[in-house]
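Objective 1.3, modelling of assemblies. Example input:
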Amino acid sequence: MYILHSCGNLRNKRCNLQDFAEAFRLAFGLVLSGDRDLFEIIVLSLQVSLSALMISCVIGFTLGTLVAVTRFPGRGLAVVTFNTLMGLPPVVVGLLVYLLLSRAGPLGTLGLLYTPTAMIIAQAILITPIVAALTRQIIEDLFSEYDELFQSLGLSVWQAMGALLWDARYSLITVALAGFGRAIAEVGAVMIVGGNIDHLTRVMTTAIALETSKGDLALALALGIVLLAISMTVNALALSMRATAARQAYA
Amino acid sequence: MREFTLQMPHSVNAGSASKAAAKAASLFPLAVNALIFEAGGRRLIDRLDLTLSAAGTTILMGPNGAGKSLLLRLLHGLILPSDGTISWGGKQPDRDIQRRQALVFQKPVLLRRSVTDNIDFVLRLHGQADAERRQELLARVGLLELAHQPARRLSGGEQQRLALARALATRPEVLLLDEPTSSLDPASVLMIEQIVRETAARGVKVIFVTHDIGQARRLADDVVFLHRGSVAEHAPAAAFFSNPSSSVARDFLAGRIIL
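Predicted structure (tokens):
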């Protein structure tokens, strides 16, 4: 916001360009210097988002595939619900998890509020519908191709689900990637349930929000660059896996 | 075009063939009575009656839209009739009877896996996953050299042979084939026909859908000629090709257009 706003102001243009240059310098400096605090934040960000992703994949792949291969009353409603929940506002999820985990909440006794576990729960809730909805679409397309073969071979629902998930594995990497992207970039929910506590629940996005509010835009931008670099690396890895699959005609 | 070798056994073991035939016989006679199938307000199978014995290869023949593929799907239980009955050896179709049959589709449906994994998938389902059996099946359809290729990278003929090998992996007592050679070159057609002939010689009942008269002549022991969703004629192959009793079959064999 600051950058967009300032770029419209000619008087501040030099200053902003300096900010960008400073941010890149700082970003590389931070990474190259092996700044312990920075790495702690990066590791926690990855831990939280990857854990949430793992939970979401287990639930989302199963639910999405189940909805794709079975016919039951209310199936249409389930599909609409998945699709609607893809756009869940993070702050709303954060608020719900906060109410659930706060002292007065039903799970308050677990003492999970302001811990990485609470952040994992919030992110998992946020991205599970994304994983489930995209999985349903991919598996349904594949199932329309395999349906008669599976019927002919007499496969049970679980056997069919297993075969479909295996054969769609490279497409599902993209689904997981979409979920990871949403999780790692999310700030609202983790801020509410994590509290951005230094050395405990501070992740990349909450750190960026904090530095921005303190006015240290260069540092905020540097953290943003590191965050982007992580996302790009993960994307590049997934893309190369898909390309390998396409070469082998599996995808 | 890829090089390959088609390894056919010189002779089919007479003992195992008679055993297989005896097992398949329990599914026969196949009796279809007053079968009706309707979809989209149209009657596609119209009070069809048919009785098939366990012996030999039955060809389902007829012009496009006669209901050949539909009948095959109904026999295999992929779709349910609107009315009428199908009975296999006096039993109503169920999951067990379906598992004793295998269907090869017109367009082969292959898993996104290697040739080997496509066979192994079915072998595992039937609890007989062993490398020797897989090799034997691949050799039987001439795909040994392509065992580790992705299935979807195979040519059309190779894909159909793989689909056939996968069907045979289930050790079916009845093999249903839905125009398996409709878009293949003559060499592939002959290879598939040879595999089908050899399978029938092993005592497996073959029900083969085609509208290719030459192919029907090469493979048929008896012919069921369908027209507008009903059986127009059912006769032994020799009688059918030399002196068809129905006018539609006569027109079809003479190459006249049937409306």
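Chain B is about 35% helix and 25% strand.
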